[in-house]
Amino acid sequence: MDYENNSWIWEGVYYYPHVFGGLMVTAALLGLSTSFFGGVGVHLPLPYTGIFRKKKSGKRRVRVYMDGCFDLMHYGHANALRQAKALGDELVVGLVSDEEILANKGPPVLSMEERLALVSGLKWVDEVITDAPYAITETFLNRLFHEYKIDYVIHGDDPCLLPDGTDAYAAAKKAGRYKQIKRTEGVSSTDIVGRIMTSLRDPKVSEDHNGTDEKPQAENQSQSSHISQFLPTSRRIVQFSDGKAPGPNARIVYIDGAFDLFHAGHVEILKRARELGDFLLVGIHSDETVSEHRGNHYPIMHLHERSLSVLACRYVDEVIIGSPWEITKDMITTFNISAVVHGTVAENSLDSESDPYEVPKSMGIFHLLESPKDITTTSVAQRIMANHEAYMKRNAKKALSEQRYYEEKKYVSGE
């Protein structure tokens, strides 16, 4: 008898011996062989079928663990966590402490509180462990297995090396509890720091007679070295989207913005906006619109990168990719918008004359939300600029470690 295929029989014997015994006696009286119950053709009376059927809900859920610094959160981080969640039922994320980041990589851009808000706000994350170690030691691995009931440790196919050059996941691999996912190409925190440095370092922005920003030709050329390598596809957008439409009587809340360098302030304001209705629709301004109203050095992340970051947020139901600056009555009618909201903390606009919310205000559906945090894209960029030298050293250190790793890997494989 195949135990796996007939485990419901043995469960029935264990939990309901009197019922099962009665069935066996009945079978004997009918002249049926008891071996008949080992086959797949057993048809029990309806009142008993639920007794022996093994319930899927009783099966222990697979818990997977993925750690990281998640500093300067971007869609690559979100995609990694999406892939990790697909390898199990529950995703537990380990958030490396500020002290560990400083010791192993250099100063973090975002604080633990800000990084926690970003990671917790992702739709694929079920639980977060704060102050996780940078290296998964055997001691911490045992803690994951026994205290947090983790089945597998997940990491990308890019190297994660300790200062001494050793693999940070060696213990998990040795224990046979390691699984690998594919790294998202086209973006990294190092790349984003480079974009910010190139875009905002000594911008030399001058004002012409009309009071508009002009960017020197040299700066425009230098910025090309850090153009995004991300190639958007419809498949990636579908992977990030829930694909759920609002119900017939749903209260649809609309909020718009650039959502550049997606940060904790964005997460918190989106959470508050979602609490005002049943469906949160987010408008994401085009690159041209952001540059026109925020300045030529913005956005840091382009439209599709920003769209994926917003879609990854658990409070967002749908996005408009390339939404208009001004909200029209036709737009409100088309999307059946019940409320238009805006936070009290936002980037300054170069165009202070026109009000993009004039129509929803006249309709009485505009609401100004108190922003929980005062962080902005500019303030994040300024942190990096203020620590220019430290971040340059951090990036160079990481690049050198990865270069050595790949060279050694190539040597060992004999390529």
Write the layout of secondary structure elements.
Elements: H1 7-15, H2 17-29, H3 46-52, E1 63-68, H4 75-86, E2 90-96, H5 98-104, H6 112-120, E3 127-132, H7 138-146, E4 152-156, H8 170-174, E5 178-181, H9 189-200, E6 206-207, E7 213-214, H10 217-223, H11 234-240, E8 252-257, H12 264-274, E9 279-285, H13 287-294, H14 303-311, E10 318-323, H15 329-334, E11 337-343, H16 358-362, E12 366-369, H17 377-386, H18 388-413
Parallel strand pairs: 1-2, 1-4, 2-3, 4-5, 8-9, 8-11, 9-10, 11-12
Antiparallel strand pairs: 6-7
Helix pairs in contact: 1-2, 6-12
Transmembrane segments: 20-46
EC number: 2.7.7.14
Biased composition (Basic and acidic residues): 201-217
Written overview of the protein:
The chain is an alpha/beta fold. Among the domains are: 119 residues, Rossmann fold (3-Layer(aba) Sandwich), CATH 3.40.50.620; 142 residues, 3-Layer(aba) Sandwich (Rossmann fold).
